Amino acid sequence: MLQAPIRHQFTATVLIALCMLPMSASQGGAATTLIHSITVVSPERSAPLENAWVLLEDETIADVGSGAPPEHADTVIDGANRYLVPGLIDSHVHLYHATGLKRRYTGKFEELRAEFFAQQPRSFLYHGFTTVIELNADFRSNARFTKTDPHPRLFHCGQGAVLSGGFMSLEVEDGNLGKAYPGYFIDHHARDDEKTSRVPGHSPEDAVRHIAERGGICVKAYYEEALWWPRKPKPDFALPTDKIMRELVEAAHTREMPVILHATTPRGHRFALDTGVDVLAHGMWEWPGQRFDAPMPKPDYEKIATEVAQSSLHLQPTFSTIRNTRSLFQPEVLADDAWQNVVPSTFRAYLTTAAEAQKQDFENLFGPLLEKNAPGQFFRNLQRDFNLRYERLIGRMANQGANLLFGTDTAVGGFGFAAPPGLAGYWEMQAWVRAGIPLQTLFNSLTLANARAFNLDDRLGTVEPGKTADLLILRQNPLKNVSAYDAIEMIILNGEFINRETLAANR
User: Could you say which of 171, 318, 337, 471 would form a disulfide bridge with 492 (CB–CB 3.0 to 4.6 Å)?
Assistant: First the structure.
């Protein structure tokens, strides 16, 4: 005899209970859940589907419709006055940084780091990110992340395609690039020494194969000019040639892997346009030859931005990256009550204690550079103006049709502390809105656009039959107000229901 379906009115109290209810198997052997009387908001639809129902079978969306729902399900949920959307995707994260944590500011570094990382996966989920993409992976961090339950779905680009003699090689302390980045590649177009440039196993094809064999779904490369380098002389490092980048792109595309290029300068964005990469990680926030607080880029820089916007390139604005530095001059950031949901109270207390020392270190290191670039200006004002001009630039590019992807660069390293997991994503969304980007564009970028760009749209990004049941139930419509993304009641991860409040750091 079949067990009668479990029926629930959709309230926070019931959702907590639902998380603890075992689901019985239906006649077909799969546990089924029916959500009815809900509004489905999904990016492939021209308009929300009202009075809708969604049937889940185990971890898969089995069917979607409107009107009279199916009669039989193991669990039935009344979703009246709620919105069902795909789980969100952050396509630019780094799981090995704990935002703002520096060993020199505390004697409890390891303890704080462990507490931060134990909460990290839950904080992404708390803010609706059911999928994250690590663009240059530390495999121990990835393993730690996936061993913590529950955790978002994790994809990665391996360690990235690191150029021998390039900027990333500066981080190798003992000079052993092969030990730190065994999949590095050599730019044989830039070297005269045939013997050195043809080291076996380090062609672009080898670099891409190295990433793919370790589970990477994408290739990240770098065009970092380090114009911001605070001391002289600036270290000598190589930039990739056009020819070697085209070889890397060809090797990646042969394996159907998108290529992401780290670049923040006009030259870097021109390089991306010329070499066929797929995604620009970061917009063009560095404008050489202009004051740090210049409100508009020079005409030739504006022209490059327009070309990017009108091209097939995807762009991750990552407002959070430069907002992170600005946080040093915004004590109000740490006063935000939302911190209590994403980091342990001990970690937040450390940030509050270390904030002034970190700000002083930043001013000592970068002060001469900023003073030379924009004399007589307060650092707080410079950082404000720098962020505002970048928001205006991205807003103009969005109006010109830029293919935007949502990524935060969480948790960006360097100075600052405004990159807490999950919460930085919500702050990033608000920056998109301040830039004038429509809510529909934001929603698409968080879901289907990211899924398509990383070849994940066969399983993620929409509320459709056959897709993985990674979903969110919201109290507000995300096409009406950005605050909807902070009005999450339930996260559905791989078909499992998780009450949002159980994920909070200081619950």
Answer: 471
- Alpha-carbon separation of residue 279 from 45, 91, 311, 402, 441 (angstroms): 25, 11, 11, 11, 17
Burial tier of 419 (Cβ tally within 10 Å: 0-12, 13-18, 19+): buried
Neighbours of 316 (CB within 10 A): 26
The torsion of the CA quartet 271, 272, 277, 280, rounded to 10 degrees, works out to 140
Q: Which residues neighbour 45 within 8 Å (Cβ) at sequence distance 6 or greater?
A: none
CA 454 to CA 66: how far, in whole Å? 31
Distance CA 354, CA 100 (A): 9
Distance (Å, whole) CA 454 – CA 258:
6
What tens-digit pLDDT sequence spans the chain (507 residues)?
Answer: 223 344 444 444 344 334 334 334 445 578 999 999 999 999 999 999 999 999 999 999 999 999 999 998 999 999 999 999 999 999 999 999 999 999 999 999 999 999 999 999 999 999 999 999 999 999 999 999 999 999 999 999 999 999 999 999 888 878 899 999 999 999 999 865 444 556 788 999 999 999 999 999 999 999 999 999 988 888 889 999 999 999 999 999 999 999 999 999 999 999 999 999 999 999 999 999 999 889 999 999 999 999 999 999 999 999 999 999 999 999 999 999 999 999 999 999 999 999 999 999 999 999 888 888 888 888 999 999 999 999 999 999 999 999 999 999 999 988 999 999 999 999 999 999 999 999 999 999 999 999 999 999 999 999 999 999 999 999 999 999 999 999 999 999 999 999 999 999 988
What does each C-alpha distance from 171 to 177, 234, 258 come to in angstroms? 9, 14, 25
Question: What is the arrangement of strands in the sheet containing 403-404, beginning at the earlier edge strand?
Answer: 219-222, 259-262, 279-281, 314-316, 403-404
Cβ contact 70:53 at 8 Å: yes
Structure tokens at 262: 């780290």
Rounded Cα–Cα distance for residues 476 and 418 (Å): 26
Nearest-angstrom CA–CA distance, 283 and 285: 6
Cα distances (Å, whole numbers) of residue 166 to 33, 162, 172, 250, 493:
52, 7, 11, 20, 39
Structure letter (DSSP) for residue 269: H
